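Weekly modeling sync, notes
Attendees: S.R. (lead), two postdocs, one rotation student

Agenda item 3: backlog of single-chain predictions. S.R. asked that every request posted to the team notebook include the full sequence so nobody has to chase files. The rotation student volunteered to paste the first one in as an example of the format we agreed on. Action items at the bottom.

Example entry:
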Amino acid sequence: MLGWEMIVVALQSIRANVFRAILTMLGIIIGVAAVIAMVALGTGAQRAVNEQLDSLGTNVLGISAGSHMFRGVSVNDQPLTNDDADAIARDVASVIAVVPETSGSIPVKLGNKNRTLTIIGSTPNYGEVHKYALQYGRMFTSAEDAAKERVAVVGGDVAGEFEIDPEMIIGQNLLIKGTSFEIIGVFESKGTIGFSNRDQNIWVPVSTAQSRLTGNDELRNIGVQIAANVPIEVAMIDVERVMRREHQIIPGGKNDFTLSDRRGFLSMQQETANILSYLLAGIAGISLLVGGIGIMNIMLVTVTERTREIGIRKALGATRTNILLQFLIEAMTLCLVGGSLGIALGAGAASLMASLAGWSTPISLAAVLLAFGFSAGVGLVFGLLPARKAAGLDPIAALRYE
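Predicted structure, as returned to the notebook:
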């Protein structure tokens, strides 16, 4: 029997028992779908991390005030101040920009609508360091910061919060904590990172925020941009040395501030995505194993049902190799059909994950070939025993089988 004829016979066998074939292929379908989704998820997670890293800047450090637990409550250590930011800019040679920040969630009113949004007081170089691009208007200037001008730049989603066109929000007056601020610019949308939507923030000059909103010179965070040719680890040591000196921490004393590299935060997201990938890989392996056992079981039943047919084929001249190949091809065809359905299901699952997570989850040719390879391998391994049983049947005993 020719190879193509064997495939046709295999497809006819599947069509003759469609429902049984679908139940048999279910493990293969789920396993292959999990393989496709796993590869797509891993690729999408890596792309998302790289995009977020690019959007944040790979050479930016964050300094925040340390804290400790006191009677079950988190209490801040010595706060960061403008003097700390000035010392870093002055004494750390590898630093090319320092961005002091003070922030808090404050009620905001525009027209007759009220919202509680995050107000960030910072310097004019905030957008350049943190890679924020202006969509409309302009950023406030150093002169406006020094003069404590009441001007503001809003995130890409703020206009939507107040049901105003982003271009039309320029020139509007915001009431922040009872103080009127003129909107002079709108940043392009950046998307969320973790649980924070950066597009719903409002930026004002740091001196204005400290004098009119917080009433002190304390900072929530200091962003530090490092020169491109300087290793992050080296710069962290220099920044830590200056901060310990400014806070008068004795040798061996514990830091009262936290110095962080943003890559660490993003690596945590990558690890979470990897754990999910491993989970899917486990599901895929178990499903393929169960599916393979199911296919071996149904092929053994098929050999029993077609014993007389096997006897007739042998009586007409079919060799052991012909019978072996026929049943192997039937098992592999069953797996490949299940694999095709699994690829379609996996592609659908990947698209669903893309819409939920906001990731790009491309289905690569390598993933499809890997899925087909798994399917064919399962058919070959688990179809071998039934095929050998069929090939080893005695033709006379097979013809007498009822």
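Discussion: group reviewed the output briefly. The longest strand covers residues 95-110.
Action items: rotation student to repeat for the remaining queue; S.R. to check formatting next week.
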